[in-house]
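Dear colleague,

Thank you for sharing your sequence with our group. We've completed the structure prediction you requested, and as agreed, I am returning the results in plain text so they can be pasted directly into your records. Please verify that the sequence below matches your submission; if there's any discrepancy, let me know and we will rerun it promptly.
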Amino acid sequence: MRKKLVTIFVVLGLVAVATFINTNSDNSQGKVISNVVPSNGVSIDTSLYIPKSTPAPVILLAHGFGGNKDSVRATAQLFQRNGFAVLTWSARGFGNSTGQITMNAPDKEVADASNLIDYIQNRKEIKKDQSGKAIVGAMGGSYGGALSLMLAAQDKRVKAVSADITWNNLQEALFPQNGINLKNVGPFKKTWAGTFFSFTALQNSYLGQCGNFADAWCQAFQDAVTVGTPTAAQIELMKKSSPATYLSKLSAPTLLMQGQEDSLFPLIESERNAQAILKANPATPLTLIWHSGGHDGGNSESERLNQLSLQWFNKYLLNKNIEIPKFEVTDTSGTLSVTDSTVVSTVLQNNKLPIEANLSSIT
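Please find the predicted structure tokens below.
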């Protein structure tokens, strides 16, 4: 019965600079170099987008859950056209990368990303600072957003970070309570978790009901579906894969963006991330963006958000004089377009974060 329930929800829902493959391709905006890089016992499939003018700062662009390096190609090309080198990769367990999914474990996916910085460090196309270190930024959405925050917290070579629609504490996100700071575990988000597992199980059915998930995460999902609450060991597992555990060490300028149509990772996740960063390092440059859209769909503002990220990296990787407000929120009620009757949203700005007044009371 237990296996049947799980199946129902699944269906519903330091690195050696050795290279196994090196494929160069040219396009109108620069060059793309594809490599397979070994990292911690697995092989990571990468693509390095090199702009026409080099050396250039590099942005590590992480994909969302269920995606791979090709999922973020359009964004990589946008930043490449605007003078940045961009490194994309398929996280372990996705695309053509080997290994099992451990949900951004610090010694697995996050360590892989650090090893990729080692990989690009000595490339001539990458711009260096006065100490000879590569100038690196990190960026991603959802799964890739959490990875970017955790990487920036643990690897000081990351000089700026942009994270969208991601989580703060995975336990609180997947087992939410109806209040704040309640100690008891709330109800399990079965539909969302089933969607996560379906991404891997349906694509890799020959691997079993949990696809490429590591055994510990597979067991955690099964227990949550059948029992409804995680064990102490599984709570610790989620803690290790949560930015909340590491954000006290993050001092790089941080752009946090969160969608207003998001029942998976709602706005409070960005509030908690911002609070944790500023409590530990109040001088950290931080901007908070609450935009329309999110995991539940809605009106996408991806073009505007990419431009905001581009401005962020121009400011903090290239030291350009750019004014960026500390807070923006999209008024999704807006007005109706006279041409096609769609809603025209309004973006409101403020140079004060909505959380700043409450920072002194955070425990």
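Summary note from our side: The first strand starts at residue 22 and ends at 27.

Kind regards,
the structure core
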